[in-house]
Each structure stands twice: as structure tokens, then as C-alpha cells.
Specification:
By secondary structure, the protein is mostly helical. 56% of the residues lie in helices and 2% in strands. The chain contains twelve helices and three strands. The protein has a three-stranded antiparallel sheet with strand order 1-3-2. The longest helix is centred in the middle third of the chain and has 38 residues.
Length: 286
């Protein structure tokens, strides 16, 4: 009897391990996991049941990260400890965004395959597809293979190594004024008066501000949105798409080559981010 019980437990553990990669792809049940700008307006024409189905397709696959105020990274004198603390602070937010993108992309690839086979999409699938066109800033009246391919270029993950290293670079390891006062880890600008923090060195003819966020999740989400939608980063998305087609891993130092327009320093900035990723790899992979 004991041997039978132990055998059953062993098989359950094996089954659990085999299923674990797929469990994380299930959307969280709460429809309010999306920010207001992520909630599609077109689904208002659907009945409540169909709206719920579409929102579940779009939902985050992990619960929201509990808010933790920004630690005082200046107070951490040990460099290695500071790096670990900084990466550990932001990494859960990066993982959550990437988990959702994987889930969206998986569904999108399934729809692309149906279209390739000339199979009809149902109303929920169409609503989901056009919701993604809206979220990823594509003005599409009628979907076609070219538009679908462009959407697939945008609906994809960003390597944590790239995200975390840019955050470290742009925020001076979480100690910059914009990180401390506005949870802005990426130097993101905004152009409406009062939308953020005015740079002390801003020229008189300039009107931009540095965006201010309420929490790190908003900052991370805005960064992902920028790199996955703005034409400024077409090159990065092309590199990522090529790596996908060649079945190669998405490595941060490779995608960094598409950041030439992120900074006025251009190629120098690319080299700096790539070198930082290589130098800090052991901390990034912990």
C-alpha cells in the first residue's frame, strides 16, 4: 500500500512538471488586469459573454505585482548587492509583461495558421485580432497577410537582459532623480505640460518633460509599449523577427543593435548596452 502511494505521488510530480510550462499561460480570470488604454473599444458591439471571452484572451497571465516603494539603492554600498537588488526589484514586472506577450503571440500564431489554411475566424477571434491591431498602434481597416505579419513583429517579448540593462543604464541603477521621484527607469519623455518632471538642463526652447509614473509596473509597461509599437524601433523588431524565422534565441545584446535611435549617442549607446549585458550576465541570469 505504501509503495503504491509513493508510486502515485511520483507520477503526479512528473505530470505536474510536464504541465508546468503551460499552466503559466492561462490568463488570470479578472478582466480588470488590463489598463484602461489596453481595453478594446470595438468589443462594445458584442454581448457580455463574448466581451468577457475577448478580454480573457487579452488578459495578463500572471497576477499584478504587489507595489513596493523604490528602495534606496544609494544606501547599498556593495556594488554586487546593489545590482542584485535592482534587478530583483524590476524583474517580476518584466516577467509579467513577457508572459502576457507570449500568451498573445501564441493565440495570434494560431489565428495566422487558420488564415493560412483559408479557415474562417469566428467573431471572438476577429474581435481579439482587431483589439491587438488597436493596442499595437496599427490602423487596419481590413486584415491581410502583410498586416498580420507586421502585427506578429510587434506582439513579441523583449529579453529581460535588454530591459533590465537599459533600466540600469538610463536610471543610474535606480538612483536618478527621475527614477526616485517618478519611477521612470528609461528616460521616457512626455509632451503635455505637467505630465512629468522638468529636466533641470532643459533648454528654453524645449517643452518636453520626463514622464512620471505611479509605480514601476507603469514604467515597464510604457517601455514595452514604446519598443513594440513606435516606428523608431522598427529595426529592433526586424532583428527580432529575423531571429524568430531562423529559430535563434532572442538575446539582449543582439536586439540592442536596434536601439540606434533610442539615444542621441547612436552606435556608441548600442555598444555600451551590449557591453553592459555581457559584463553583468551572471547577475541577469540569477
Amino acid at each position: 500500500m505504501i509503495r503504491r502511494t509513493l508510486t502515485l505521488m511520483a507520477w503526479l510530480l512528473v505530470a505536474s512538471a510536464a504541465l508546468s510550462p503551460f499552466v503559466g499561460l492561462q490568463p488570470v480570470p479578472e478582466q480588470d488586469s488590463l489598463d484602461e488604454w489596453q481595453r478594446p473599444s470595438r468589443i462594445a458591439v458584442l454581448n457580455q459573454a463574448d466581451q468577457k471571452k475577448v478580454l480573457e484572451r487579452l488578459a495578463y497571465t500572471e497576477p499584478a505585482i504587489a507595489f513596493i516603494p523604490l528602495p534606496d539603492f544609494n544606501a547599498i554600498s556593495n556594488t554586487n548587492a546593489k545590482k542584485r537588488a535592482f534587478f530583483n526589484y524590476l524583474r517580476p514586472h518584466v516577467q509579467r509583461e513577457n508572459s502576457r506577450l507570449r500568451y498573445l503571440r501564441q493565440q495570434l500564431l494560431e489565428l495566422a495558421e487558420k488564415k493560412r489554411k483559408n479557415q474562417r475566424l469566428n467573431i471572438n477571434e476577429y474581435a481579439f485580432l482587431y483589439s491587438l491591431y488597436d493596442e499595437f498602434r496599427m490602423d487596419v481597416a481590413e486584415s491581410d497577410p502583410q498586416m498580420l505579419n507586421e502585427l506578429l513583429k510587434r506582439v513579441d517579448i523583449l529579453p529581460a537582459s535588454l530591459v533590465l540593462m537599459q533600466a540600469a543604464n538610463e536610471s543610474a541603477w535606480g538612483t536618478s532623480r527621475f527614477a526616485v521621484e517618478g519611477y521612470n527607469f528609461f528616460g521616457q519623455w512626455c509632451f503635455r505640460e505637467g505630465c512629468g518632471l522638468v529636466p533641470l538642463s532643459r533648454g528654453e526652447e524645449k517643452t518636453h518633460e520626463v514622464a512620471k509614473f505611479d509605480n514601476p509596473a507603469q514604467s515597464i509597461r510604457s517601455y514595452f509599449y514604446n519598443l513594440n509599437t513606435f516606428h523608431t524601433y522598427d529595426e529592433l523588431r526586424d532583428i527580432r523577427s529575423t531571429l524568430r524565422a531562423e529559430r535563434k534565441p532572442l538575446r539582449g545584446e543582439v536586439l540592442a543593435a536596434g536601439l540606434g535611435r533610442y539615444s542621441e549617442r547612436g552606435e556608441e549607446y548600442i555598444v555600451e548596452i551590449s557591453d553592459m549585458i555581457r559584463f553583468n550576465r551572471r547577475f541577469l541570469e540569477e
